[in-house]
Each structure stands twice: as C-alpha cells, then as structure tokens.
Design a protein that fits this description.
Layout lengths: L7 H18 L7 E2 L1 H8 L3 H13 L3 E4 L3 E4 L10 H8 L4 H26 L2 H19 L3 H17 L4 H4 L2 H13 L9 H16 L2 H31 L2 E3 L8 E3 L1
Antiparallel strand pairs: 1-3, 2-3, 4-5
Helix pairs in contact: 1-3, 2-3, 4-9, 5-10, 5-11, 6-7, 6-10, 7-9, 10-11
C-alpha cells in the first residue's frame, strides 16, 4: 500500500470501481477529463484518496494522467483486459454480455487445451483429485446449493489450469474464478446446474484420470458449449422477468391485478 492514511484501502477501491464502471458504460466518455479536485469534491475525500483512485484506474489502462488536464478516459484498446478486477467491474456493468462472450471465447481457447495437457502431464494424485470434486459438484448441484457448487466448480477448473504444465494457463485460474463467481452472483446460473454440465465435469475428470488427452479435450469443449447456452438462457429469462408486469394481491379484490 502506498499510503498509511486510515480508511484509504476500502474508500479508494469503491470510488475507483464507480468511476471505472462509468468509463466502461460510456458515462465518462473516452477523451473526456476529470481532475483530482473533481474527484475530491465529488466524493468528499482527501487528495491522498483521490491520488490512489487515479493510480488504480491508470494501472488498469482506464485513464491516463495528463498535465493540466487530469485523468483522461481511454478506449477499450488501452485497458488491461485480463485484470480480474476489471473483469469483475465489466461483469457488473451494462457491458456484461460482451464481457461474458469474450471470456467464454477465451475459455474455449484455453481450457480444452489445459484439460488435454493435464491428462498427459499431471501427477496421478492430481488427476485423481478431480474425481471427488466432480462428485461434490453433482451432489451440491442436484441439491440446488449453488454457492457450495461454485466452490467446487472453481477448484475443479483451477486444478486443471494449475496442473497442465503451462504457466500462462495457470495464471488464468484467478480470472476463471471471477467469471464463475460473476455468473452465480448475478443470477446467470440456472437454479440447478443442467445434468449435461454435471455429466461433462465427470467426463473430464474421468478422462484426465485415465490419461486420455483427446477425451479430456472433447469433454471440456462440451462443458463450455453448455456454459454458452446456459448464459443465453439465463439472460433471456432475466429480460423476460424484467419485462413482465408485477402481480399484487389487493385486499378484497378478486382476481389478482397486474401492475406495470
């Protein structure tokens, strides 16, 4: 931490998140400037906190600091797109569909190869550890325990990425965790994981355990195709819920009345 002023860590992260999402959404337009003084007055914070906000946004490529101008919002081409914090912000912005699409494309490129390599190179102990994880995913998934399911899901994918023999793939395990947490936290997971998803994780675990690289790759590709389909189904359901009228019971009234 670059400062010892009490309260700065929590305060500056929250302000940076709010301003970052403004840039992502376009409310703070590319090329437009804000000064540290504007941040100070707008959020009623000290100069030190405003500087920490500036540093965080600049480290993520969302702004550049210009003398006599302040913080200048940058286009998406300048953003550190693989930063897990930035990914989390994008998942909580109006651009979440684009972000999930991009992340799914990345996962399609990386995770089947990681599963294939894990089947070749991971130790027998690591390969065997996937089987109970898949079992727990089925148990918690069928019980509708989504947050318990999430814990095992993250560990399953992290185990593959960290044990595939590729340090670049391993470095993406935190990113995949953010994606999985974002899907669950924003209601983009079905109330119960689809049987195809549970079957797919078991198929990956079994293929990796057997040392079957081709089978592991094919099973992981199947999981990610299901991920894409589940996201679009959940998003369509969310839009439908938002568009449907609210129904209330009005005392002494029969039948129920719908209110827009």
């Amino acid at each position: 931490m670059s400062t010892t002023e009490p309260g700065i860590p929590l305060r500056h992260h929250g302000i940076a998140r709010e301003l970052g999402i403004e840039i992502i959404d376009g409310a703070w337009a590319v090329g437009h400037c804000r000064t540290l003084e504007e941040i100070q007055s707008g959020f009623n914070v000290s100069r030190t906190v405003a500087r920490e906000v500036s540093r965080q946004l600049e480290a993520m490529g969302l702004v550049r600091t210009r003398r006599r101008l302040g913080l200048v919002a940058q286009p998406i081409s300048e953003w550190t797109a693989l930063d897990p914090t930035l990914i989390d912000w994008r998942l909580h912005s109006s651009q979440r569909e684009d972000q999930i699409y991009s992340l799914t494309q990345l996962r399609l490129a990386v995770e089947p190869a990681a599963a294939e390599s894990a089947a070749r190179f991971a130790t027998i102990h690591t390969r065997a550890s996937l089987l109970p994880l898949a079992f727990e995913m089925r148990r918690t998934g069928e019980a509708g325990e989504l947050f318990e399911f999430l814990k095992y899901d993250i560990e399953f994918h992290a185990t593959l990425l960290k044990n595939c023999g590729n340090e670049l793939f391993a470095s993406l395990s935190g990113l995949v965790a953010v994606v999985l947490e974002g899907r669950t936290g924003q209601g983009l997971m079905p109330l119960q994981p689809k049987p195809e998803a549970l079957d797919g994780h078991e198929a990956v675990a079994e293929a990796v355990f057997r040392g079957d690289p081709a089978g592991a790759r094919a099973a992981m590709e199947g999981i990610l195709q299901e991920v894409r389909e589940a996201f679009w189904e959940a998003e369509e359901a969310r839009i439908a819920r938002a568009a449907s009228p609210r129904v209330e019971k009005i005392p002494g009234d029969t039948p129920l009345r719908a209110r827009g």
